[in-house]
Backbone:
């Protein structure tokens, strides 16, 4: 791959640039990465994500970056303490079993702590994420023409001759994120019926959560477990009461179930439209010390703790190094000028 050829030169450039030069031009920069599943598709034996992550964690160590937890990052911001040089943070979203079973030994091998944001009702096994159920439904439907009535009464039509499953899933996700999500889980029953797919009575193997005791083991091993709502519904599409309940209810559940849950939060799906001032104010008035989004960017001195950006963990080495170092921030700055 062409980009791989650039790994050596970009590493040399980054390592040769004096720290004070970066600081004076870009200020202090901390990247927070977020990851999701530890294997692509349904093939648990596919090691491609694990191998890529392993390369990146090794890179961090060799090039003297300093992995810290999100909790530590926020604490040093609040107390205005100096951060370790070249600090970097890893986070994993939702609380799937592989985020313990596969991720934990890998991160441990490189002494890198991570924060796992868990959906509390998912760990309780009372539900599994609605967005994954959309995927499951579509991938298991044998119909060649799909007609789906959404919760607001509007209809989406697809032909599986012209539309790929990925495109159909993306379109349904997109539409649902714009609608009132109060009755999302009740609506899923209708969704499965329309697809002629039997609604799973239990969470399918691939989609199962980690257990509470695995979550506790993560904490005991120096990682963090933190709240990611109760049900993963989009907060900006819920009433005031429900939005607050999703945030504080998940935090309270974690405190009840775990010793040492971390008071940091992640907005479900986390795009700019998925949360608002209302959610940020719930966070700042609570025990929670920060909330992260999925809006890309480095954490800077001026970032608000209730609204910290994160980079999706890139699938290639070159982009990883750009986000990890100052390159991405420099590019952003230059393009703005
Ligand atoms: Zn999530």
Residues:
């Amino acid at each position: 791959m062409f980009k791989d050829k650039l790994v050596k030169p970009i590493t040399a450039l980054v390592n040769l640039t004096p720290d004070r030069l970066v600081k004076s031009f870009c200020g202090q920069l901390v990247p927070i990465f977020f990851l999701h599943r530890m294997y692509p598709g349904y093939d648990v034996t596919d090691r491609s994500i694990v191998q890529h992550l392993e390369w990146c964690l090794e890179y961090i160590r060799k090039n003297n970056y300093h992995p810290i937890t999100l909790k530590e990052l926020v604490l040093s911001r609040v107390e205005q303490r100096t951060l370790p040089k070249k600090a970097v943070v890893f986070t994993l979203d939702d609380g799937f079993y592989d985020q313990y079973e596969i991720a934990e030994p890998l991160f441990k091998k490189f002494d890198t702590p991570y924060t796992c944001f868990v959906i509390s009702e998912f760990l309780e096994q009372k539900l599994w994420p609605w967005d994954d159920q959309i995927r499951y439904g579509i991938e298991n439907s044998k119909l060649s023409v799909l007609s789906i009535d959404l919760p607001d009464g509007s209809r989406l039509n697809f032909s599986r001759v012209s539309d790929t499953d990925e495109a159909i899933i993306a379109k349904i996700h997109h539409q649902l994120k714009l609608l009132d999500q109060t009755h999302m889980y009740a609506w899923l029953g209708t969704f499965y019926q329309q697809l002629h797919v039997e609604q799973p009575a239990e969470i399918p193997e691939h989609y199962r959560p980690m257990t509470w005791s695995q979550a506790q083991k993560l904490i005991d091993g120096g990682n963090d477990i933190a709240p990611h709502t109760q049900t993963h519904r989009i907060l900006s599409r819920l009433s005031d009461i429900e939005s607050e309940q999703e945030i504080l209810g998940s935090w309270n559940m974690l405190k009840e179930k775990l010793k040492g849950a971390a008071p940091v939060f992640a907005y479900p799906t986390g795009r700019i439209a998925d949360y608002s001032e209302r959610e940020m104010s719930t966070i700042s008035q609570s025990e929670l010390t920060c909330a992260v989004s999925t809006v890309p960017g480095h954490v800077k001195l001026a970032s608000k703790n209730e609204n910290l950006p994160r980079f999706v963990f890139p699938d290639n080495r070159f982009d990883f190094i750009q986000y990890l170092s100052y390159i991405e921030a420099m590019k952003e700055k230059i393009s703005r000028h």
Notes: The CA atoms of residues 26 and 330 lie 7 Å apart. The pocket of zinc ion is lined by residues 93-94, 228, 232, 268 (CB under 6 Å). DSSP finds 15 helices and ten strands in the chain. The two ends are 31 Å apart (CA to CA).
